[in-house]
Amino acid sequence: MNNEDKIDSYKNILKDFIPEKSVDTVANWIIQFHFHLKITENRNSKLGDYRSPTENGLHQITVNHNLNKYSFFITLVHEIAHLVTHEQFKKEYRRVKPHGHEWKRNFKNLIWGFLNEDIFPPEVLYALKGYMNNPAASSCTDADLQRVLKRYDKNQNKQLLEDLKPNTLFKINGRVFRKGKLLRKRFQCTEIPSNRHYLISGIAEVKEIDEVIDK
Fold it and tell me: pLDDT tens, 118-148?
């Protein structure tokens, strides 16, 4: 299969996962940056990841399949920025901080041309521009951006920790907690039954539990 046929094939897949006006560029990036894009099952621990070239010479990028198209696109660009950083600092890549200024610069350069309303709804664009002032390890760490992005998820019945009343019992990642007080940007929650305290983001997706649980 020649590159033109590959690009057409990539476009056919990408159109279901990212904004329409970004499809052509991303399809060409797959050829340009020589990576394999793997769309995976949902992973609670991460939205995507990057792996440096294996024996077949391909970089690998994975992104969770269940992300809405704006979250998917931002995550994909995030991981491509890791790839670009790896290529720039091959011999000393391990000395480069994963989300240091090198990665931040590449992420900004890659996404800059997409910061317009042809790609993102106004509210997402506004929040994304705020995040771009200092992009972090994950868009999930920016509460304002993540809160806006969640409005475009297919499942609109998700519960967020910040919406629960104080002392409410909830489950997250198979563990049960009681919601506590807000400390800066996270809630101090008590795990049941260990009574250990954990700081959990207010935009974490949780499941409220009605029944009383013995400690």
Answer: 999 999 999 999 999 888 766 666 788 988 9
* DSSP H/E element including 80: helix 69-88
Residues 63, 49 contacting (CB under 8 angstroms): no
- In this structure, what is the dihedral angle of CA atoms 173, 147, 141, 120, given to the nearest 10 degrees? 120
Q: Which domains are delineated in the chain?
A: 3-150 (no CATH), 159-209 (2.30.30)
Whether the predicted pLDDT of 215 surpasses 50? no
pLDDT tens sequence across 175-197: 999 999 999 889 999 999 999 99
- Bridge partner residues of 197 (DSSP): 190
Distance CA 201, CA 13 (A): 33
How far is the C-alpha of 7 from the C-alpha of 24, rounded, in Å?
8
> Which two three-digit tokens encode residue 173?
């990642």
With H, G, I as helix, E, B as strand and everything else as coil, classify residue 7. Answer: helix
Strands 35-40 and 59-64, sheet pairing? parallel
